[in-house]
Amino acid sequence: MITEVETHNLQETLKEFFGFDGFKGNQEAIINSILNKQDTFVIMPTGGGKSLCYQLPAIMSEGTAIIVSPLIALMKNQVDAIRGFSNELGIAHFLNSSLNKSEITTVKNDVLSGKTKLLYVAPETLNKEDNIEFFSEFPISFFAIDEAHCISEWGHDFRPEYRRLRPIIDKLGSVPVMALTATATPKVQQDIQKNLGMMEANVFKSSFNRENLYYEVRAKKDVVKEIIKYAKQNPGKSGIVYCLSRKKVEEVAQALKVNGIKAAAYHAGLDAKERAKTQDGFLMEEIDVIVATIAFGMGIDKPDVRYVIHHDIPKSLEGYYQETGRAGRDGGEGNCITFYSYDDIIKLEKFMKDKPVNEQEIGKQMLSETASFAETSSCRRKFILHYFGETFNESKCGEMCDNCRHPKQRFEAQDDLLLALKAVKESKEKHKVKDIINLLMGTLTATGKSYKHNELKTWGEGVDHDKDDKFWNAVMRQALVNGFMSKDIESYGIVKITDKGKEFLKKPVSIKFTRDNDFSSADEDSDDVIVAGKGAHSADEVLYGMLKDLTKKTAKQNNLPPYVIFQETSLEEMATNYPITMDELAKITGVGAGKAAKYGKPFLALIKKHVEDNEIERPSDMVIKSVVNKSGLKVFIIQNTDRKVSLEDMAKNKNIKMDDLLTELESIVSSGTKININYYIDQVIDEDKREDILECLRETETDDLKAVLNELGEDEYSEEEVRLMRIKFISEFGN
Would the pLDDT of 719 be above 50? Predict the structure, then answer.
C-alpha cells in the first residue's frame, strides 16, 4: 500500500512536474490505486482531469505505461502536452500508422533505453504480432485504456479492436490495467469490466453533473441563420458546431465565414495537414468557431470553449454528453444548444437498416433516449444524470437548462401514472414504452395482437387524453426518470415496475408532471436565401415608400426602368434592416458589391438620415448572408459564358433544367454582375424580336414577367425569349 512518504512524493511530483497545488475529486485515490498495482476503473466526465490519472503514476513508476487511445490526433495532443512539462522529448511517444520507419526506430530506442514513461498506441497497433514481441522486451508499469466505452457495443463509439485487448495484455504478463471513460451508463460500465476481466477492479465514479453547463434544445428552423446570429452575438468566443455530415460541415463553415466569423471546417475527409492546421488554429485562437463532424474534439484540451452547438441531434446521449462536455472545461461559461426535429431521428434510423438486427435494436434504443431528452419538458440535467445512473434533485439545476428557466405548466398526474403502471403490470412487464402507449391508446399493432392486448382492462383507457401519443410519451418518460419504472437494457428496453412503482400502485399519492415540448413543426433551413437579421421584423413602410421614390428618380436619371436599379424585394429588405454602410448594402438580396457601388450612395444617405431622425434601433445582427448552395454553379456559368458555351450544353453538363439555369442567370445579373450572353441570344432570337422585347423592357416600370408577355403577346413571344432578353438588358444597362 502507499506510504506517507510516497503520498508526499505524489504531491511533490504533482507540483514539480505539472505545476498543480492539489488534486481534483477522485484523482489522488485513483492514482494510489494503480500505484498499488490494482486494476482501476475510472468514470470521470470531460474536464474532470482524467488524463492526469494515468500520466502522473506513469511518471512515478518503473518502466513504461502503455496508453491505448483511439485517435491519432488525440495521441499527438497528449504527447505534445506531456513533452511541454519535460526537458526530455523522449518522455512520451506515440506508436501508430502515421510514423515512418526512422521515426519508429527512434521511438523503440527511447523506450528500450528507459527514457519513455508513456507510450501511446492505437488498439490496431497493439494487435500486431511484431509489436507484441517488442512490448515483451521492456518493463511495462501498467496499461491505461482511454475512451474505454469503445469496448462496449452499447457504447456510442464501438470499436471491435478494443474487444481484443485483454488476450494481448495477458500475453505480456501480470500487468495492472486502468480503464477510463467520460461516458458510461451502468450497462456500458458492466460491459467494459466484463470484457477486460476487471470485475474486481477498484471503481471510481465521479458525478456527471457539470454545474456550469447550460442545456437548451430549439426547434430545427432556420438553423444556419440561428447559428450565425449566435456567433455574432458572442464575438471572439470559442465555439464548436457539430453536424452529422461532411457536406453540412462545409456549408455551415462557409456561411459563417461569409458573415465575417473566423470559422473553419473539420472532418475526416480533409487531409491530415489541413486538419492539424485547423486544430492548431483553434487552440491558438486564430479561429473562433470550428464546424465539425464528431471526428473533432476527442482529447482536445481547450478549457475555454464557450459554446457547443449541435446542428443535428446526436445518435446517442453518450455522444451528446461527451460533445457538450467540451464546453466550459475551465468551470466558466458553457452553453450547449441543440437543434432538434423528430425527422432527424427517422433519418438516422433509416441509415441503420443495413446493419445486423442486434445493432439496429441497440441503435434504435439509443436514438429513442436522445429523442426523449430533446422532447422532455422536465429538467434536462436530471434526465441526463438519470441516464448515467445518477439521482438528481431538479431544484438544484439553478435554471441551467431551458426547461427549468422557462418551466411548462404542470398537471396533476396521479391517475395517469397509476393507469400507466397498471398497463405495464397487466401486460406482464414484457413490453417496451411504445407497446404500453399503444395499449393505453387502443392501437392494435402486430405485437398487441399476438399478446391479445385488446382483451386487457387497460386497453384504450388512455385514449381520451390525446389524438396522438405525445401525452403518454411524457407520462412514461417522467415515470422512468422519477424511478417508478425502469428499462431492462439487456432486453432492448423492456419496461419493468420498480419498488417505488409497486408502492405507488398500493398507495397512490399526488404527483405533478409536465407535457412534452412539441417539435412537430420544426423544419430544415431554406438553403439559398439571404435573409433579414431578425425574422420577426416587418418592413418600415415609411422608409419603403421613400426608397421606392428614390428608385424611380434614379431610374429616370439613368433612363431605365426602376426594377433594373433595385427590385422591390431588395427595397423591402433595406426597409427592414436599415443598412448604412456599403458592406451592409452589398449583403441585401439582389444587390451585391457592383450594384451597391453603382447606385448605393444616395440610398445609404437616405436610410442613415431616416434612422437618425427617428431614433431607430437597427437589428443588432443586421443582414445574415447565407451561402448559396449553387455558388459553384455561379462560377461555372460565368466561366462558360466567357467561353461562349451554349446554354443547353451548360444545363446538360450540370444536369439541370433550362428554367433553373435562367433563374441562376437572373440572380447573377440582379446582384450587379455583368454577364454577356449575346452570342447565344443572337442564335436563338430573331433580330426583330430582340428589338421589340428590348423596347418593351425599356418602357415598362414593372418587373412582372407576365405583364411584359401580355404586352408583347404570348402567341408570338415565348417566356424563355423574354427572360433571355431581360438578362441581357439588366446586365448591359443596370450593372
Answer: yes
Q: How far is CA 495 from the centre of its chain?
A: 31
- Which stretches does DSSP call E strand in 348-488? 410-412, 485-488
pLDDT tens per residue, range 346-399 = 788 777 877 788 778 888 888 888 888 988 888 999 999 998 888 899 889 999
Contact 484, 476 (CB under 8 A): no
Burial of 295 (0-12, 13-18, 19+ CB in 10 A): middle
Spell out the domains of the chain, with CATH numbers in brackets.
4-205 (3.40.50.300), 213-405 (3.40.50.300), 410-514 (1.10.10.10), 530-625 (1.10.150.80), 631-734 (1.10.10.1390)
User: Which contiguous run of DSSP H or E holds residue 37?
Assistant: none
Residue 697 and residue 708 in contact, taking contact as beta carbons nearer than 8 Å: yes
- Alpha carbon 537 to its chain centroid, in Å, reads 28
Determine the Cα–Cα distance for residues 449 and 445; give it in Å rounded to an integer: 6
Distance CA 582, CA 586 (A): 6
The number of beta carbons lying within 10 Å of the beta carbon of residue 79 is: 20
Q: Are strands 40-43 and 202-205 parallel, antiparallel or unpaired?
A: parallel
Contact predicate 700/559, CB 8 Å: no
- For 508-547, the pLDDT digits (tens) are 999 988 888 777 655 554 443 333 333 334 578 889 889 9
Sign of the dihedral defined by the CA atoms of residues 180, 181, 182, 185, in that order:
negative
Q: Which residue has the cell 492539424?
A: 276
What pLDDT is attached to residue 212?
94
Q: Which residues pair with 120 in a beta bridge?
A: 67, 94
Cα–Cα distance for residue pair 376/735, rounded to 1 Å = 53
Rounded-to-10 torsion of CA 714, 716, 717, 719: 40
CA–CA separation, 198 and 201 (whole Å)? 5
3-state secondary structure of 541: helix
Let me know: does 222 contact 287? Beta carbons within 8 Å. Answer: no
* Neighbour count for residue 194 (Cβ, 10 Å): 12
C-alpha cell at 242: 457539430
Asked if pLDDT for residue 296 goes beyond 80, the answer is: no
Residues 26-65: pLDDT tens digits?
999 999 999 999 999 999 887 678 889 999 999 999 999 9
Query: How crowded is residue 735: how many other Cβ atoms within 10 Å of its Cβ?
Result: 19
Q: Do the beta carbons of residue 586 and residue 594 sit within 8 Å? A: no
**Mean pLDDT score across all residues of the chain:** 85
Cell of 18: 505539472
Q: Are 401 and 379 in contact (CB under 8 A)?
A: yes
Contact 340, 217 (CB under 8 A): yes
Closest CA to 188 of 454, 369, 392, 329: 369
CA 451 to each of CA 29, 430, 473, 488, 489: distance values in angstroms, whole numbers, following the listed order: 52, 10, 21, 19, 21
Distance CA 30, CA 38 (A): 10
For residue 337, pLDDT over 90 is answered with yes
Q: How does 26-52 read in b/e, with b if 16+ C-beta sit within 10 Å?
A: bbbebbbbbbeebbbbbbbbbbbbbbb
Is 668 buried (19+), middle (13-18) or exposed (0-12) by CB count in 10 A? Answer: buried
CB 458 within 8 A of CB 423: yes
Instruction: Provide the residue type at 65 as one letter.
Output: A
Q: Which residue has the higher pLDDT, 77 or 426?
A: 426
Per DSSP, 401 falls in state B
What's the pLDDT tens digit per position in 198-229? 999 999 998 889 999 999 999 888 899 899 98
User: Which residue, 28, 64, 77, 24, is CA-closest to 48?
Assistant: 24
For residues 66 and 140, the answer to whether their CB atoms sit within 8 Å is yes
What global pTM score does this model have? Answer: 0.62
**Residue for grid cell 429523442:** 371
List pLDDT tens digits, range 138-159: 999 999 999 888 887 666 667 7
